[in-house]
Amino acid sequence: MNETLRSILSSRSVSSEDGIAHSLHSSISQEEGNFLQEIIRTARPQVSLEVGCAYGISSLFICEALREVNARKHIIIDPNQHSAWKGIGLANLRRAGYADLIDFHEALSYQYLSHLTEERATIDFAFIDGMHTFDYVLVDFFLVDKLLKPGGIVVLDDLLYPSIRSVCRYVLSNLRYTCVDPQSRELVPVIFLPASLPNPPDHPNYAALQKLEQDRIGEGHDATRHWTDHKPF
């Protein structure tokens, strides 16, 4: 494990560029970080993307694995990196030696993701952990889907939120995605529970979905199959 990440996890604290310490919160668990690394080591993405950075814990886990597979670039989008998080996420990535791997954008996710779609960019892996309201998560996923290559993987964090479970239910019902990893496949019954129920215990707090093929809905093709057998919500 990268020494910067190891130190943060053991001390449960982070520090800004000027040395001011802050208690670690709003970060993924080590279990989730290990899971992300397993996915990356298996899929070997060349270009990855992350929505949300905060203190950079997920980014550190991701970049460590990306370095191992000789990835080219990790795009990070976080509109509040300096206003809410004091630039600590970026500082941690620099301390860990990942500055050359990072392509950071301090913008609203839907704005920069839209820019990437206009540029016809492509990605192999995405981690969505930004705004947790249904509309933002759905728009983030919609735009990430336009960038993600067939066979690529997108992981949505914080499945305990009903809004995120609703997005996952919609995706699995209507788009060409499947759950990957044994634990993620166990999430299917959870995702299809009523959205108001709490997340049952002993289930992971993420959904890992693999894109099976390019979905051509919205490009003049028949969309009937998406709406005859499945309800979107």
Topology:
Layout: H1 3-11, E1 13-15, E2 21-23, H2 30-43, E3 47-51, H3 57-68, E4 73-77, H4 88-95, E5 102-105, H5 109-118, E6 123-128, H6 134-147, E7 148-157, H7 162-174, E8 177-179, H8 182-185, H9 187-191, E9 206-211, H10 225-228
Parallel strand pairs: 3-4, 3-6, 4-5, 6-7
Antiparallel strand pairs: 1-2, 7-9, 8-9
Helix pairs in contact: 2-3, 5-6, 6-7
- Helix-and-strand structural type: alpha/beta
Counting DSSP H or I runs of 4 or more residues, the number of helices is 10
Helix content: 25-40%
Name the overall outline.
globular
Under CATH, the topology can be stated as: Rossmann fold
Helix/strand order: HEEHEHEHEHEHEHEHHEH
What does it look like?
- With 233 residues, the chain is of the alpha/beta class.
- The protein has one domain: Vaccinia Virus protein VP39 (Rossmann fold).
- 40% of the residues lie in helices and 19% in strands.
- It is built from ten helices and nine strands.
- It has helices spanning 3-11, 30-43, 57-68, 88-95, 109-118, 134-147, 162-174, 182-185, 187-191, 225-228, and strands at residues 13-15, 21-23, 47-51, 73-77, 102-105, 123-128, 148-157, 177-179, 206-211.
- β3, α3 and β4 form a beta-alpha-beta unit.
- α6 packs parallel to α7 (162-174).
- The radius of gyration is 17 Å and the shape is globular.
- It starts with a helix and ends in a 5-residue tail after the last helix.
- The model is unreliable at 220-233 (pLDDT under 50).
